[in-house]
């Protein structure tokens, strides 16, 4: 979703902004722009629809200065045009602003304060910079004008504002949308996430909601909107520059798929000691033990990971688990149990829908645990507890290693709680050993890339639709597998409980409809799924089978090493990630940046 980067100080701003925007590309965007200023008489505003490369092609050596702000826009209000691209300017052109989020009362503001203002585009953002400009025209100082605007604006926002008459300051504020300060020697930065600044600094400072920062080359002064100063310590980010490179891989997604065995081993060393004892935070264990029901709230792939873990959590902890779609629960919270515990699953830790649920949960006094890949993210900061995924940055929009890491992290949590409860199933479950076998199973599947690419070419080259089917955990993997396929190949795909097809959807099966069947459960369940395969094959479907070793037959297409049933969703999803990858690649699509999508979905 929209990305912001800004710098003030002794550096080449154009270079830093462009590098930063390139690092933010993974978030998803459809236009971009930068504003760079050297002195009040020398500044440039450049915008472009399309990729950062298109913006770069418009930038000449005359775009130079030590202060600037840049933006990637993912259109919400108004189409992807240059007029709507950020930065936006005030009526006189004196103020320049970038924004991430949605200003909910922008039409009201326009009516109440900006009569006669000629707005160039259709965005909600433009009113914010006009508002500041108007208040300065009315006689307020820039700071007072910004504060007054912040008191009026409602919704989600991360703002960076420059006054062209004072190129040595960037005014920053945020509410609900992510924004961070990066601290350097003789320069300071602002950015939507650390990845865009890690080349320049490893020192960061958080900004909380409804805080304002006056950023100069030597200082980052934090205050609330009434001007009360706030002390905030900086921290060192653990990110390594090499973690965010693609290396020799053609796409991040393939690199991230390949990293999964390493992520499994990292989780073992994080959540178990050398004797195999769980090292999950005892306060988290206690909080789960006290709950009479666990509610997992998430979106997209993270939601699917919650489902894939549900039966494992219930068996190991003896606590019922309910899943909720975050975008639904934020405003339609169902009747809860007496002692609920909320688990927020989120790769990015910034998903606005999930955050809305957390805000509600906090207001209701419900204990919460965020399981995320991003330390210091909003969901992590605002939940009662955090468990980190330690998967390393996930850059491809299509989530892969975060999904498998979420299931593995939930396995550690479940085993730790189950052991604390004295549950036999938990005590007997040698998670460290079983997860090591999962890592080996993933490695084995990763050696089958050529086979999988070949099968994909035969099955999915020209199709417009497809189905994944499975039972039990395979059904939940089918949901994730179909999301992955449609997300990056644009093939319309549904994940079905295999037995459900004949209750309606089988009418869609015709000659050559691809049906991908997943089989990892018990022999009886496997036999039922095989029956469903016969039903669709009899109606002309082209069937591809992904089957766990032990249940496989000679003519199955892809065989996956057998692992413990609690963890089979991890090993079974790997071939489906590769299927999606090759389907996208073979169609000549941008695997890492599918159309219309964003990596961190920071608007509701
Ligand atoms: O960062 P989160 O896990 O909260 O994101 C939730 C979804 O937006 C995300 O999983 C999305 O579905 C992925 N792009 C799917 O690959």
TrEMBL record:
PROSITE patterns: GATASE_TYPE_2 (PS51278), SIS (PS51464)
Residue ranges constituting the Glutamine amidotransferase type-2 domain according to the UniProt record: 2-218
Keyword flag Mitochondrion: no
Molecular function as annotated in GO: carbohydrate derivative binding; glutamine-fructose-6-phosphate transaminase (isomerizing) activity
InterPro entries from the UniProt entry: GATase_2_dom, GFAT, GFAT_N, GlmS/AgaS_SIS, GlmS/FrlB_SIS, Ntn_hydrolases_N, SIS_dom, SIS_dom_sf
Alphabetical keyword list: Aminotransferase, Cytoplasm, Glutamine amidotransferase, Repeat, Transferase
Record-annotated SIS domain positions: 284-423, 456-594
Location within or outside the cell: Cytoplasm
Primary location class: cytoplasm
The protein's assembly and partners: Homodimer.
Function: Catalyzes the first step in hexosamine metabolism, converting fructose-6P into glucosamine-6P using glutamine as a nitrogen source.
Protein name per its UniProtKB record: Glutamine--fructose-6-phosphate aminotransferase [isomerizing]
